[in-house]
Structures are given as structure tokens and as C-alpha cells.
Amino acid sequence: MKLKKHPLIFLSSLILLVFLSFNFALLTGSGNLSSQEFFSLFFSLIDGTASPLHQSLVFELRLPRALAAFAAGALLSIAGVLMQVLLRNPLADPYVLGVSGGSALAALLAMLMGFNTLWLTGSAFLGALLSIFLVFSFAHSQGCWTISRLLLTGIILASGWGALISFVLVISPPEKIHGMLFWLMGDLSYDRPLLPSYLILLFGFIFTMAISRQLNILLWGDIQAGSLGINIRRLRTYIFFISSLLTAGAITLAGSIGFVGLVIPHLVRLMIGTDHRLLIPASALMGGALLIIADTLARTMLSPQQLPVGVLTALIGVPLFLYLLKRSQ
């Protein structure tokens, strides 16, 4: 059966995958729950006989972390789709324009000064917004707007952020290095507000679906898109800001997690084609499910020690992407 001819079956399969990944995350951990204990927990909540240990384990520890993983994966996947359209390159990822570097630098400075989680989250988001503003300002100098100029500006800015991040790591006290490295490689172990990230995800999804037809036309080239009445410059500006905002939301929530925004859109595109009306929701579902599974493995593989989730996404993403690259050739 060709998935390109049966997109609804593919989307239904992804919804089932998300459901199974949530079940996997809630049942698996240092204290495993059986399926019977898990489902009986919901019925016992009604009559107030739920075990406090199981209730705390599921609803206070595992469920918020799984929800954070899904939001981060979906945000990165949609941002990856938009960035690949913007730069006309299927190898582009959400971090290519340096948004992650500004966010990471601000987050590390907050850790260095001993700020709490709320200040850390706010600092990471403000750092991402600063990076977005700098890239946009320099790339549009004297009204010039080209893909090569935008990409070059982002790469140079990312290099500058990387140098400053290395400097902060060098001057940081040893007791804070471990937490900083975990954040740089992707960390879902700390408490974080979920509502802002889900609002960004909802806004980004609605907006990208609204311009999905224009994204399809933009793939044909600027001349064809312009002849059909599309304002190319304005559309690219929208894509840049929305993809950057989605990336900022993901980084603020989970730190820098690699390969999700690169591999997932590429994989989904090979399965169901380039129609963004299907590509965007499918990428969001698959990216969220993948990150839930990766985070669950990261916290259980070497239990009680936890791994940064970015390590697992890289271990999954590198061989998968090499396979997809070979297949596409």
C-alpha cells in the first residue's frame, strides 16, 4: 500500500503511535507499572482510593515530562518543515540560523547566576528572541532579502554564540557544569511551565496550516509563485518568524535537542509527499511521539542515572538519516 495515496491511514497510524508512546512513557520507569495497575489508577481516582505513590508517579512525574517531550518534538518538527521550505534545502534544521545559540547562552548565564527554573525559562526565551532579531536585522540590511544572505548571517551569528557559550563553560564553577551540559544536550528532567509552549504550538500549527497552500506553491519557485499573486518577500518573512518562534519555544522547554527537526520532516516527506496540508500535522505527530520514546529510554536505559535526551535523538537520528539519504539517492 502506498502511503502517498492513503494519507488518512498514515495520519491515523501516527495518532495511534502518539497514544502508544504516552502509554510507554507512563508505564515505564524505575518503578514499572503493569497495565492493570495503570488503568485501575484512573478508576480509583473517582472513588478516592488511588495509591498516593502511583498517583504521584504518573501524574506528577511522568505525565508532565511526556507532555513536555511531545510539545518539544512537535515544535521542532514543524519548525524544521518551515526552515526547509525557507532555505529550499531538505537538510536544513531549526537551529541553522543561530536561534538555539542565543537561547543557550542566555540559559547558561541564568544558571551561572543561580536563577530558578522560571528565570531560566524566561532567559532562554529572551535569548532566542534576541537571536531572531539580530538575524533578521542583519539579513535585511538596506532592504536586501536573499536566502544566501539569511543563511550566512545565521551561520556567523551561531558561531559567535558558540564562542560565548564555550567561554561561559570555561569560567563556570565545576558544580554547575553538569547541569549546563545536560541543558545543552537536551534535558526534560526539570519542572517547566507547559502552557506557554503549547500556546506557541497551537498558534504555529494554525498559522502554518493557513499558509500550507502557499508553501506548496513556493516549492515551484519564486517566478511561478509570484505569477500566482503570492507576495514572496512577505511569505518568507512570515516563515522565518514563525519557524524561529517555534524553535524558541522548543529550546525554552527542553534545551537544544538535535536531529528531530531535521530527520522527521525528511522522513515524513518521503512517506507521504510534499503536500504541506499533510506534511505539517504528520511531522508534528511523529516528532512528538519520537521525542516521548527517546526521553523515556533516556531516563530508563541506565537507571537510576539519566541521559540527556539529545544523546538518544542523535543515536536514533544519525543512522536513520544516513539510511534516508542513501535511499533518496
| Radius of gyration over all CA atoms, rounded | 20 Å
Supply the number of helical segments.
Answer: 14
* Structural class by helix and strand composition: mainly alpha
CATH architecture assignment: Orthogonal Bundle
Strand content: under 5%
Shape: globular
For this structure, what is the CATH homologous superfamily? Answer: ABC transporter involved in vitamin B12 uptake, BtuC
The largest β sheet comes out as:
none
* Low-pLDDT regions: none
Which sequence of SSEs, written as H and E, runs from N to C?
HHHHHHHHHHHHHH
N-to-C CA distance? 22 Å
Number of strands: 0
**Number of individual domains:** 1
Task: Provide keyphrases for this structure.
0% strand; globular; ABC transporter involved in vitamin B12 uptake, BtuC; 329 residues; 14 helices; mainly alpha
Descriptive notes:
This protein has 329 residues and is mainly alpha-helical. It has a single domain (65-328), classed as Orthogonal Bundle (ABC transporter involved in vitamin B12 uptake, BtuC). It is 77% helix and 0% strand. It has helices at residues 7-27, 35-47, 52-86, 99-112, 117-139, 147-171, 174-185, 195-210, 212-218, 222-227, 232-254, 260-272, 276-300, 309-328. Helix 1 runs antiparallel to helix 3, helix 3 (52-86) crosses helix 13 (276-300) and helix 13 (276-300) packs across helix 14. The longest helix has 35 residues, at 52-86. The chain is globular, with a radius of gyration of 20 Å. The relative contact order is 0.17. The model has no long low-confidence stretch (mean pLDDT 85).
